[in-house]
Amino acid sequence: MAHSKLLRYSAFATNPNGGNPAGIWIGNKLPPKEKMQAIARQVGYSETAFIAPTTGFDRTVRYYSPEIEVSFCGHATIAAGVALGRTEGAGTYTFSTLVGDIRVSVDAKKGQYRAALTSVEPKTAAAGAHLVDEVLRTLDWRQGDLSAAIPPMRAYAGAWHLVLAVNRLERLNQLTYDFDALKSIMEREEFTTLQLVWRESEHVFHSRNPFPVGGVIEDPATGAAAAALGGYLREKKLVPVPVTIRIQQGEAMGRPSSLAVTIPETGGIIVAGTAVAIPA
User: What is the pTM of this model?
Assistant: First the structure.
């Protein structure tokens, strides 16, 4: 397609060997869905963001994993924000997505670009005991592994996730699961990822995110899940607000990522981070 470019950035990191890689396609007009899916499959990252037009602060954005279109993707949004900042300039961009308008503020300090997205209004829904037991079986986890302080919950801030908090980091670090069984459950329940977390301290969480519905075993940094967790923590009064928490993700994969999640008293959750270009 004429007048388009395909970039590759890693989000929530300052080193291309860390963070979560994302494709960023920028063109005058979005390609047909079949073409976007084919490009995302060829890129092979957990998500590729497709952005049009090529100039201006208002853009239409769609997100594709190698297997499916995704309603919203946080790490590809951060990566795209930094890429636009470097090529178009700092400022506040508005991404028109399938879930609504996402404000993306981009600035640079000492040559390092940083982007902050503000999610749509978060919400939660109950996760029934049968669903939780079903998911635990696919992970080979037990009820006793879960933290009583952060009960299982469905959480949304642009995409639905199942939040499961464990009581020991060792449990989080030991993650193997039945790919096909978990994928089937997640497709049925319309979950994008699982948000598996361990709370190290009041302001620090560690997270892992299985993503079988996208054809990916695990996501090393998940901005949408981070926003959903922030909304859940606020709604259930598990953190004082306003507050900024840090989510460490990707460590067990060898791709360390750091997500800053600002939880205001009301409104969308703000997820911020750096991103760096991946050499060709």
Answer: 0.97
